[in-house]
Write a structure and sequence with these properties.
With about 120 residues, the protein is α+β, with helices and mostly antiparallel strands. It has a domain of about 70 residues: Alpha-Beta Plaits. Helices cover about 30% and strands about 30% of the residues. The protein contains 2 helices and 4 strands; from the N terminus they run H-E-E-E-H-E. It has a 4-stranded antiparallel β-sheet, covered by helices on one side. Strand 2 and strand 3 form a beta hairpin.
């Protein structure tokens, strides 16, 4: 009776599945908020978002939000107003952290759009 290799394979498979599940549970979406310079605004980007996250982008500190038209959406961005503060960005990130079931979140800065 050959139980050695079969037992090791089942044990190895169990370890792999457990590791993947723990890695998924430990996933954090906390993004670093970079400093802004003069005439720059924050932009939050979300890659392949899933969950009930869209309401997070309905905030007075966000000047413009864009979501791709493919379904499910492959990306979304939120550009903040010039008056937005770091606490506004963190509030949106906290909302996304609670609402996203999948997706990669990043924060960057971009030159402030000029008014015509």
């Amino acid at each position: 009776m050959r139980t050695g290799p079969r037992r090791w394979t089942a044990g190895g498979l169990w370890m792999m599945v457990t590791g993947v599940l723990l890695a998924g549970c430990a996933q954090e979406r906390a993004a670093e908020v970079p400093a802004t310079g003069a005439d720059e605004v924050w932009v939050v980007g979300i890659g392949y978002p899933e969950g009930e996250w869209a309401s997070c982008l309905e905030d007075d500190s966000i000047a413009q939000s864009l979501i791709t038209l493919d379904m499910p959406a492959s990306s979304a961005t939120a550009t903040f107003t010039a008056e937005a503060r770091e606490q506004d960005v963190r509030r949106i990130l906290d909302c996304l952290d609670r609402s996203l079931t999948e997706g990669d979140v990043s924060v960057s800065v971009t030159p402030q759009p000029r008014r015509r």
